[in-house]
Amino acid sequence: MSARGQPPAIEVVAAGPLTTVQDAGRVGWRHLGVACAGALDGDAAALANRLVGNRPDDAVLEFTLSGPSLRFAAPVRVALCGALVDAVFETDDGRACPIGHGRPVDLPPGTLRVGRPRMGVRAWLALSGGIDVPLVMGSRSTDLRGSFGGLDGRRLQAGDRLPLGPGGWHPVQRPAQPTWWTEFDDPLPAEPCIRYVPSGHSQATSLAQRHWRLDPRSDRQGLRLKGDSLACTRVDEVSAAVAPGTIQLPPDGQPIVLLADAQVTGGYPRLGHVAAVDLPRLAQLAPGQAVAWRAIDALESRRLWAHRRAQWYRLMRGLDARLAPGTPADLI
Amino acid sequence: MTSRDTPRIETLADDAWLVRLGEAIDPGTLRRVHELVRGLRDDRPPGVVDIVPAYTSVGVFLDPRRTEPTRVRAWLEAQLAARTDRAADDAGSRLVEIPVVYGGEWGPDLEDAAGSLGMEADALARRHASGDYTVAMIGFAPGFPYLAGLDPALALPRLATPRTHVPAGSVAIGGAQTGIYPRSSPGGWRILGRTPLTLFDPTRDAPALLQPGDRVRFRAIDPGAFDRLKEQPS
Description:
heterodimer, A: alpha+beta, seven-stranded mixed barrel, six-stranded antiparallel sheet, 27% strand, B: alpha+beta, Gyrase A, domain 2, Cyclophilin, 2 domains, seven-stranded mixed beta barrel, four-stranded antiparallel sheet, 5 helices, 24% helix, elongated
């Protein structure tokens, strides 16, 4: 049985180091210098939304390295996707229980404490109804560099209140979750291999022949690679459009892979672009982690992407059956 | 000659193409960029989500759930083939006037910049304000216009150490370019003055005051006018 109506806002008890409101991103404004922003793994965010009955582009919370603690004054359905994280729910009368990953979880009033990912660095938390911050230029995503969108254009902090949109939820007395779970991507191996399409730059294929580690200075704007410098003969090019996944070669020879918060134009020489199928995997690279590169051609890259989409639709069809009315939720 | 270069279409991402119309920054190439952008916008097929001009190129982004990269490429090729080599005249572009207070606390680099160019501060302000500029592209930050058309005699090197805080509205020269900081941010360009206008407000219907391809003129105003204009809603 589900109720409908306007649930009270959620209180952020602890925010974690970098927790932001993100949706499918801000599209159509690049010509005005506005970055896409949006969940770094759009599929994980969409999956979490699907599990709680939201639209795929509803706003979720993205967190990095450690999750938030959230207090709910009313029942809510939540789902955690992305990196595998430990999460515990505490009811107001002091009972605690672990919360599963990749499944819909119905919660009574209480506090959800999301810990550190066991593998990977980022995960997404969807809440039924979606985070209902105002749309800014068509999106609820936080633009950290522009300081707009999301919650006042910034990362969450303790004491924030997050409004939820109207959504169906199950007024449970105790946490309820099914024993089944689902995820879309395999966890990253210790030394993941990222596929990319090389440009015509003389150093483009050298990327795959060197050892790289992720520089800790990486953020949502770009991943910095650390390793034997690549020769950078041309210092500057005329600025031109760049995209999430563009691999730039700055003068120090240490490549930068742009992510969703990147500026829209850039003047560094380009080594190529990350295959779209591997873009979401970049979100899970940890500081200091080794990362290998493999060159593929553009046709192969598009084929891999089409294959990923086909897998996605199969996953969604399977979930439609599981999430049919009256989702069986085992009491725990 | 650059303006006769054959356009090249490069892969920018699995969901984006980059059309290169030349290699070097020159007025002819820039006019062709903006002419192409106008043509592409007027004839945009479903699934093309972003068209991003720069000095010598146009980035075209698509939603791969709604269209195919190869289909968009074929559309770009047809658009380029249909285009004659005529450069766009300025008739189709907007002219936007930007009021600026030059010098003083509003333009802390004006005196030094004028000194290094061997001219009086007033002369530098006058020559900067008398230019006829075009918004070549918007980048660096939301709403930051890179203006083409700076008098080459006014080119100034960037500061060796960028400022940590450049106030919003600062009008500045960096190399052979001039631009306006839409919001306070770090920056290394030489600040000649400041406009009271709000260049970027994500909550406005038209978030950016300037669009790529717009023509821009600066008008020198006094600090009193700055305060009056600042009080008006943007």
